[in-house]
Design a protein that fits this description.
The complex is a heterodimer.
Chain A: E1 4-13, E2 18-27, E3 30-35, E4 46-49, E5 54-57, E6 59-64, H1 77-86, E7 89-94, H2 105-118, E8 122-127, H3 141-147, E9 151-153, H4 162-171, E10 179-181, H5 186-189, E11 194-195, H6 198-203, E12 207-208, H7 210-227, E13 231-233, H8 239-250, E14 255-259, H9 261-265, H10 287-299, E15 304-305, H11 314-317, H12 334-343, H13 350-357, H14 359-365, E16 380-390, E17 409-419, E18 422-426, E19 429-430, H15 431-439
Parallel strand pairs in A: 1-4, 1-5, 6-7, 7-8, 8-9, 9-10, 10-13, 11-12, 13-14, 14-15
Antiparallel strand pairs in A: 1-2, 2-3, 5-16, 16-17, 17-18, 18-19
Chain B: H1 6-10, H2 30-46, E1 61-66, H3 72-83, E2 87-92, H4 95-100, H5 104-113, E3 118-123, H6 128-135, E4 139-145, H7 151-165, E5 172-176, H8 183-194, E6 198-202, E7 218-220, H9 223-226, E8 232-235, H10 251-258, H11 262-265, E9 273-275, H12 288-291, H13 298-316
Parallel strand pairs in B: 1-2, 1-3, 3-4, 5-6, 5-8, 6-7, 8-9
Helix pairs in contact in B: 2-7, 2-13, 3-13, 5-6, 7-8, 7-13
Classes of the chains: A alpha/beta, B alpha/beta.
């Protein structure tokens, strides 16, 4: 296996408290050495000049919809992993709301096998809490864990039956796997399209009140306290939810949470014009909520940033607002959005941002990722934080184009990606393409 | 061209609206609204002639595209178009068939292929008129989209108010009923505020949408307290199909708290007028007897609707004469 000496880059590795100009030596798929003035014993090591660039651990997106199996027209495991790599993510956790649902070992095995066939990147399947996401009976969690799921979620649907949620939190303790809560009281949110407030009123769209989320966040925190289970709040979006998590953490309850870039950047005011690419669940909230979430990043209450990458067919997004599906894609824009709008405006440092997108989600999921330590698997990303990324859906690796950011100019371009020590992207191009060009 | 329009013909070049579409009252300036109302006055006289037709829009094609059943709005638009000699094509679709496949974009492309000059769309989903306008080159009139807007209804209501009172500014209007789900309420609030009227919305809190006060309206849960102060009582239709949503306990209780009846009317100004966009639920928001009293301008609204829609069609199509 080839060796690489990545030299002179600014290594940001929050897990190992590294934040300095250093060299990284990759040998046999692992990190062989990190330090200043490293040389390789192997004369064959290819030297990659990373001066002026940033070296970060391959990022971990803990909330992705890969649509495979079932909706391969929207995304496949391969296109999803390519989109992830393009965006600096070498690991993704995929939600179980596929067709069929990831609620039994055979579907987990299908996902893992297809991911292995891609040849790079890591897919960590999340198993369903309940059979068929129906919210009625627990899925066979033991079998799912054995097959390789890292967490449980009925994402897209809330487990409305509190007894069932209690059982899930209790039962999953056997493997210390988190239960990821899609916090949305379905009776309060029923028929809702956007955040309830001034904008839902003037646009005549049915509102989803913040309370629909907060009631379930509160319930699940209380159930976590009761059971000692691990609860993780997916796509937290309101100031009230954040406050509940803050208080729970102060009380020592085992709760973690993630936020999405769109809930940190966009607001309900962006719904003027009824652009369905801004239709997402939870809905874009008020500017006050956005301010609170940004403060939550600063204070450390928020554990992770996740894209909630949700591909949808173009013809489905071109429906009337009420009929268009919820969701937007984010794998290829998340890192640049966070660098530009969150780090760029001084909310948190780049190092903190990387922590929220690498080691923290890895810890929540219990996977050995997000670290550039000696002996770690060499999942690495080289990033040019000054280069401009113009968001052009036509150039996406994803099979879908439902982004609200088309045309935006962002800072932060992923130039090189290594997965388990093998180059995936070099100088902005997929290695597979470089090879095929050479062969022509 | 009849004499009633002679004045307008002379100044034709300035007689256009800024936008190709009318999807929201907010697209219109105060001056444009006044222009539409003035023009509708001229057109109203045409409706009183034995031959109710002028050749103004001859050769133009107007498509009415209705995804919801509606008799009065559709008939009103078609009558307006025909009195201007335009050709009309009506397309009815059930919203359920749309959900199954055809998107608003597909519909737009179909209409485009028909070389229509103007489309009137009625749709149960808010924002559909705006989306259609984005996908299509010809003009779009919103004939009511979900709970969002129904701009020509508001214009005909303004026309009716101005005709009755000689002005709009300074009048106090109470809009009563299901404000939350009413496109008529939204368009009227925008239009009345723009023209300088005071607006109070009245209904149970379950039917008053969040932050409505930010539109510059007062909010009241008590019709009897509001009634003595208002010049115009605008009653909205209670949508009976919303019964299952627990927005209020029963039609009986709604009628007792917010229904207009003769006894309640005693507290009102003698000059009070009652308006309703139709169709009415007699015995719910309005008692049968009141609907037929002279204070009720409900049939006048219907008559004026044709004239106002003629004005809107004329102005959006630029009023270009074929001959």
């Amino acid at each position: 296996m080839s060796s690489y000496l990545i030299s002179g880059g600014h290594v940001i590795d929050p897990h190992n408290n590294t934040n300095d100009i250093m060299d990284v030596l990759v040998e046999d798929g692992k990190i062989a050495s990190v330090g200043i003035g490293i040389t390789s014993d192997k004369s064959s090591a290819e030297v990659i000049d990373a001066s002026g660039k940033v070296i970060i651990p391959g990022l971990v997106d803990m909330h992705v919809h890969l649509r495979d199996p079932g909706r391969e027209d929207e995304e496949t495991i391969e296109s999803g992993l390519r989109a992830a790599a393009r965006g600096g993510f070498t690991s993704v956790a995929c939600m179980p709301n596929t067709e069929p649902v990831i609620d039994c070992a055979s579907v987990v095995e299908y996902v893992k096998r297809k991911a292995a066939d891609v040849g790079f990147g890591n897919v960590f399947p999340i198993g369903a809490i309940t059979h068929g996401l129906k919210g009625e009976t627990l899925s066979e969690m033991g079998e799912l864990v054995k097959a390789g799921v890292v967490a449980f979620s009925d994402d897209g649907r809330c487990v409305m039956n509190s007894q069932l949620m209690r059982r899930a939190l209790e039962y999953s303790k056997m493997w210390e796997k988190p239960v990821i809560s899609h916090a949305e009281d379905s009776s309060l949110a029923k028929g809702g399209q956007i955040n309830e407030g001034y904008y839902s009123t003037i646009l005549g769209l049915k509102g989803i009140p913040a309370a629909a989320e907060e009631i379930i966040v509160a319930r699940d925190i209380i159930l976590a306290e009761l059971t000692g289970g691990k609860v993780h709040i997916a796509h937290l979006s309101t100031a009230g939810s954040l406050e509940l998590v803050r208080q729970a953490k102060e009380r020592g309850i085992d709760v973690t949470c993630e936020v999405t870039p769109h809930h940190l950047i966009l607001t309900e005011a962006d719904l003027i014009g009824y652009n369905t690419n801004f239709k997402v669940n939870p809905p874009l909230r008020s500017s006050k909520d956005v301010e609170s979430l940004r403060q939550g990043l600063k204070d450390g209450v928020i554990d992770a940033i996740a894209s909630d990458h949700a591909p949808h067919a173009r013809h489905e997004k071109e429906m009337e607002f009420d009929y268009a599906p919820f969701g937007l894609i984010g794998l290829e824009t998340t890192l640049a959005l966070i660098i530009t709008d969150i780090v760029g405006s001084g909310v948190i440092s780049l190092s903190k941002a990387i922590e929220l997108m690498s080691v923290n989600p890895a810890k929540i999921l219990g996977v050995p990722k997000g670290s550039i330590g000696v002996g770690d698997t060499a999942d690495l990303v080289i990033l040019d934080t000054n280069a401009v990324l113009e968001v052009d859906p036509a150039k996406f690796e994803s099979k879908s184009i439902n982004t609200p950011y088309a045309g935006r100019k962002l800072k932060g371009v992923v130039t090189d990606v290594f997965s388990a020590g093998r180059p995936v992207i070099r100088d902005g191009r997929f290695v597979s393409e470089i090879v095929s060009l050479t062969n022509q | 061209m009849g004499t009633a329009l002679g004045y307008w013909e002379q100044e034709k070049s300035s007689l256009k609206l800024k936008n190709k579409d009318l999807v929201s009252i907010n697209q219109l300036s105060k001056e444009e609204i006044t222009l539409i109302l003035d023009m509708a006055e001229s057109f109203k006289s045409i409706s009183k002639r034995p031959i109710k037709k002028v050749p103004t829009l001859r050769g133009r094609t107007i498509v009415t595209l209705f995804f919801e059943p509606s008799t009065r709005t559709r008939t009103s638009f078609e009558l307006a178009a025909k009195r201007l000699s335009a050709d009309t094509v009506s397309i009815s679709k059930s919203a359920s068939s749309v959900v199954k496949g055809e998107s608003i974009k597909d519909t737009a492309q179909t209409i485009e292929a028909m070389a229509a000059d103007l489309v009137v769309i009625r749709h149960p989903a808010s924002g559909s008129a705006e989306l259609l306008a984005r996908y299509i080159k010809c003009g779009v009139i919103n004939g009511g989209d979900g709970s969002h807007e129904h701009p020509t209804q508001a214009l005909l209501d303004l026309f009716t108010i101005r005709e009755k009172f000689g002005k709009i500014e300074g009048l106090k209007v109470a809009i009563v009923g299901d404000i939350a789900h009413s496109r008529v309420a939204r368009s009227n609030i925008f239009a009345l505020k723009k023209m300088g009227a005071d607006v109070v919305v009245v209904g149970p809190p379950t039917l008053i949408p969040r932050d409505i006060d930010r539109l510059g309206v007062d909010v009241s849960y008590n019709l009897d307290a509001v009634l003595p102060e208002v010049d115009i009582l605008y009653l909205l239709r209670i949508q009976l199909e919303r019964q299952g949503e627990s927005l209020f306990p029963s039609l009986r209780e709604y009628a007792s708290l917010f229904g207009l009846n003769r006894k309640r009317l005693e507290a009102a100004k003698s000059s009070l007028v009652v308006m309703h966009p139709g169709p009415m639920n007699r015995g719910v928001e309005i008692s049968a007897e009141i609907a037929d009293m002279p204070q009720a301008l409900i049939t006048t609204q219907v008559t004026n609707g044709v004239a106002v829609r003629m004005a809107v069609l004329y102005l959006l199509l630029g009023g270009v004469e074929v001959e």
